[in-house]
Each structure stands twice: as structure tokens, then as C-alpha cells.
Amino acid sequence: MKKTTIFFTLFLLILSCTAISAQAKYEKEKAEISAMLDGFNIAAAKADFNTYFNYFAEESTFIGTDATEIWDKKAFMNWAKPYFDKKKTWNFTSVKRNIYFSKDGKLAWFDELLDTQMKICRGSGVLEKINGQWKVKQYVLSVTVPNEVVDKVVEVKAPIEDILIKEMSTKE
Q1: Residue 9 Rama label (left phi>0; alpha psi -120 to 50; beta)
Q2: How high is the pLDDT of residue 19?
Q3: C-alpha distances in angstroms, 38 versus 32, 57, 99, 128, 159?
Q4: C-alpha to C-alpha distance for 115 and 12, rounded to whole angstroms
Q5: What CATH code is carried by the domain that includes residue 69?
Q6: Is pTM beyond 0.70 here?
Q7: Residue-range definition of the domain harbouring residue 136
Q8: What positions does the domain SnoaL-like occupy (predicted)?
């Protein structure tokens, strides 16, 4: 009985140390990703084109707030360049951020609420660790709409998006 108790206690001790070690690793990774996302937002606010786009993986996608805004990195760079050149970019500050990891730790995804010129927005995305650095593989920017005013928002956007829905549904 004593041997079983000792063995079980040692097993639990080893298991808890392993779990603490994994948790500590992810806490370090979360801090690294959080700093990266803050730098990403700061680079945009400072209109630092090269720094901002270096946060993106070569094969990446940016999905904007408009239904027509889905770009690969090169197309997004082309779209954004005039704004960066004129120093008329966006200034987002994270208010609340969640970060999650794949089991193997090679991928992470996040969602965050952002304080922006459009008021609260949601940024979300997928990150991949490439050559020791976390890179944006996909970024999605969404405008949040309080439930109390969603009917008013739909009323305003319906005439525009009804046309868009018709155009998109007739394309192959």
C-alpha cells in the first residue's frame, strides 16, 4: 500500500511539474505575441510601412471591415501604401486580448477588442511562428455593433449590401 501511495504521489508530482512547465512556456509565448501585436498596432499608428508589413507572413491575408476587403499581403500593401505615405493610417489600441495555441505550439490565434477611430472594433487572426518570430497569417478587422442599434445599422447598410449580395451571388 505504501509503495502504491509513494508511486502515485511521485506520478502526480511529475505530472504537475510538466503542466506548470507547459503553462509557463505558453505564458512566455503569450507575452511575446502580445508585445508583437502591440508593435504591429504602433507601427500602423506611426505610419511605419516596412515595420507594419514585416509583421505579416509572406503568404498572409488581411480581411477588412467592408465585405469586399480581402487581400493577400501584396494587394494589402498596394492598397495601404498611399495612406502610409500621407501619414493617414489607423491608430488601434488593444483594450482586451485573448491568445490561444495549437497543441504543438506552432500556431496561435487571437481576438482582441480595439479602441479605434471607429470606436470599438474587433481584431482577430492566426499567427505562425516562422524562423523564431510570430507572423500574421490572417488578420480580420470587424466593426462591433451594439445589439441595441443593430436594426438601425442594417437599415443604413441594406441598400449598399443588397446590391453587393446580388453581384456576388451571380458570379461563379
Answers
A1: alpha
A2: 44
A3: 10, 17, 13, 17, 37
A4: 44
A5: 3.10.450.50
A6: yes
A7: 2-170
A8: 33-145
